[in-house]
Write a structure and sequence with these properties.
With 488 residues, this protein is an alpha/beta fold. 39% of the residues lie in helices and 22% in strands. The chain has two domains: 3-259 and 464-487, Aldehyde Dehydrogenase, Chain A, domain 1; 264-458, Aldehyde Dehydrogenase, Chain A, domain 2 (3-Layer(aba) Sandwich). The strands form five sheets. A seven-stranded mixed β-sheet has the order 15-16-17-14-13-18-19, with helices on both faces. A six-stranded mixed β-sheet has the order 10-9-8-11-12-20, sandwiched between helices. The chain has a three-stranded mixed β-sheet with strand order 1-5-4, covered by helices on one side. InterPro entries: Ald_DH/histidinol_DH (IPR016161), Ald_DH_C (IPR016163), Ald_DH_N (IPR016162), Aldehyde_DH_dom (IPR015590).
């Protein structure tokens, strides 16, 4: 039997004001469970609970906050055998992705910010002699900059990594002394609701963490507009991010937004066999890793013309070797997309590219696998940089290949989209790649690798977002600087 959930508000379950809606398994099209549908009263209750808990939690000693977050990591690890199948069923991610990159990173993030709660929050500034003014007498003036919590933080998360993404927001927010109201993506909120009782068991005060869900945009809109919310942390599409920025700006709420991406992997002409293999593996991850539902994916591969057909052939072989099927099967590499609507959207982009004259090298047809919302790994070659498929984020297992003749052209093509989240440079000369990275309008650049470093500041240029999180930068993102000045 499927489970029917309530909202998690004020440290207990609260029946929703608008009933429930089904959460669908993208691989089987069966119902995983029923999520609560919030109304305005539910949203208001969650914000009020967070506001009531703020004074006590923000004044809790950092060591006590650290202990709660550490205990939360322990409990997540203990409950991983139950959470992994739930996350897998909600997201449609393969078992390999779920067991390694859905639940374990959430544990790691709580552990990381347990340490983060103990990081120094004060930057001492050297005393300075200041002359007398009509405002005040002169003297030796001391000062310090101190990080203070924002207040009530609204965390709105994406559907691709629901638990990991939420942990990446909640853990640093709580470490800094904020309280939280979370609103998970409507497609897979159940695992996020399960976090509520675990945090309570870990010792988090009632109201410091709350979760409301809903299938309609009105729930998130009500949270963002609520006068009791001080900050909005959002991961999702650029279109929704712009609406959040407009609403939050009316009351000058702080925002942290990680938005869309259209990553370019530039393969330079000096790339040798080893570097080409690395580039193909990185770009191929768009096909093989969570069906391309990754904002950092290198969905465009820009290849020096001398290597273009060689890279096309290697990517074709890569895509054709991947098994599409049931994500619970350990041999499956490509699972479904999150919903029928997302599958249809990706298919429409591919059809549009074909109509505009691009070459569909592999894929482009719906797999025979049924039920489920599957899209075959698709490689599109000979696209013009101005084509829609080369400019807009698809969020599916689709790669667009474009040739270039020199570095200036490569930079122009890479920077020709509104996005600037994550780009990549592959070349035999790492110093040359480093220099080229400086010309890319991108918040992150991988050189000869798609691997991430967990302590780097993560965020985007242009329409890919506002602000940075990750490592200690995540603590900075969920705090305000207060300057203290005194006579030394």
């Amino acid at each position: 039997m499927t489970k029917t959930y309530a909202h998690w508000i004020g440290g207990s379950w609260r029946a929703p004001g608008n009933g429930h809606y089904p959460v669908i398994n993208p691989a089987t099209e069966d119902t995983v469970g029923h999520a609560p549908e919030a109304d305005q009263a539910d949203v208001d209750a969650a914000v009020r609970a967070a506001r009531a808990a703020y004074d006590g939690w923000s004044r809790t000693a950092p060591r006590e906050r650290a202990a709660v977050l550490d205990r939360a990591a322990d409990l997540l690890a203990e409950h991983a055998p139950d959470l992994v199948p739930l996350v897998q069923a909600e997201t449609g991610a393969t078992l390999r992705v779920t067991s390694s990159l859905q639940v374990p990173p959430a544990i790691d993030r709580f552990r990381r910010y347990a340490r983060g709660a103990l990081e120094p929050d004060t930057v001492p500034l050297a005393p300075l002699p200041v002359a007398a003014t009509p405002l005040a007498p002169g003297g030796l003036i001391g000062a310090a900059a101190v990080r203070r919590p924002m207040g009530v933080v609204c965390c709105i998360t994406s559907y691709n990594f629901p638990l990991t993404n939420l942990a990446g927001k909640v853990a640093p927010a709580l470490a800094m002394g904020n309280t939280v109201v979370a609103k998970p993506a409507p497609q897979d909120p159940l695992c996020c609701l399960e976090l509520g009782p675990l945090l309570k068991e870990a010792g988090l005060p009632d109201g410091a963490f709350n979760v409301v869900t809903g299938s309609r945009a009105a729930v998130g809109e009500a949270l963002v507009a609520h006068p009791g919310v001080d900050m909005v942390s959002f991961t999702g599409s650029t279109a929704v991010g712009k609406k959040i920025a407009e609403s939050a700006g009316r009351s000058m709420k702080r925002t942290l937004m990680e938005l869309g991406g259209k990553g370019a992997a530039i393969v330079l002409g000096d790339a040798d066999e080893r570097v080409i293999a690395s580039a193909v593996g990185a770009v191929g991850s768009t096909f093989s890793f969570h069906s391309g539902q990754i904002c950092t994916a290198p969905t465009r591969v820009l290849v020096h013309r001398s290597l273009y057909e060689k890279v096309i052939a290697a990517l074709t072989h890569y895509a054709e070797s991947l098994k599409i099927g049931d994500p619970v099967d350990n041999s499956t590499v490509v699972g479904p997309l999150i919903s029928a609507a997302q599958r249809d959207r990706v298919e429409a982009y591919v059809s549009g590219a074909r109509e505009q004259g691009a070459r569909i090298v592999v894929g482009g047809e719906r797999p025979a696998h049924k039920p489920g919302f599957y899209v075959a790994p698709t490689l599109i070659a000979d696209a013009d940089p101005a084509m829609t498929v080369a400019r807009e984020e698809l969020f599916g297992p689709v790669v667009v290949a474009l040739p270039f003749d020199d570095e200036d052209e490569a930079v122009r093509i890479a920077d020709a989209t509104p996005y600037g989240l994550y780009d990549y440079v592959f070349g035999a000369d790492a110093g040359r790649a480093w220099t080229l990275a400086a010309r890319l309008r991108s918040g992150n650049v991988g050189i000869n690798t798609a691997q991430r470093h967990p302590e780097t500041p993560f965020g985007g240029f242009k329409e890919s977002g506002v602000g940075r999180d990750g490592g200690s930068f995540g603590l900075h993102a969920y705090s305000e600087l207060q300057s203290l000045v005194w006579v030394a």
